[in-house]
Amino acid sequence: MARHGYAALVLLAGAGSLPLPLAAVTGTTFQVSASVVPGCLVVGGVSNYGSLNYGSFAALSTSPASTSLTSGVQLQCTPGVALTMSVDGGQNNASGRHLKLSSGTSLLAYQLYSDIGLSQTVGVGQNINVAYSNPNNITLPLYGRVLLPGNLPAGTYSDVLQVQLSW
User: Which residues belong to any copy of the Spore coat protein U/FanG domain (predicted)?
Assistant: First the structure.
């Protein structure tokens, strides 16, 4: 036991003979950076971009009906981002977009437009520029028009469209 006590004493004595560290002050710089990449956000992660509802009409009506996208998705984009959309032909694409009778096979042709004046047709898969003035509140410019032929079976007609957004 005496040996162990002696070795511990020697180590302590050796530690006492080491020089004490001196206080030092050093300084340097480093860079901090971040990159903001342009992009867009679908607010709330919505998967339903809205609806085009033409309303109800008599089966013998021959009047045109038009509507605009309602309850649509809200988008936000980095200012200056070029946003485009394209719309597919829908589930009833037979030489154009069609609404289909839910309880049958009857079809009703309709057109999509990118302007309220119904002068800019949205073709199947065509890229359309989405203009916006407020990058925090962007809505999709979609308008629809149907010409009722006056001889369709009564019932609910519908279609489902796929919208592709690019930036």
Answer: 28-163
pLDDT tens per residue across span 82-92: 999 999 999 99
Going from N- to C-terminal start, the domains of the chain cover 38-167
Average pLDDT over residues 31-40: 92
Q: What is the mean pLDDT of the chain?
A: 87
Residues 6+ apart with CB under 8 A from 101: 107, 108, 152, 153, 155, 156, 157
**What's the rounded Cα separation, in Å, for the pair 75 and 78?**
10
E strand map for 49-148: 64-68, 75-77, 83-87, 98-101, 107-113, 128-130, 143-147
Q: Which 3 state secondary structure label does DSSP give 42?
A: strand
Please tell me the class of the 38-167 domain: mainly beta
> How far, CA to CA in Å, does 12 sit from each of 16, 38, 115?
6, 64, 89
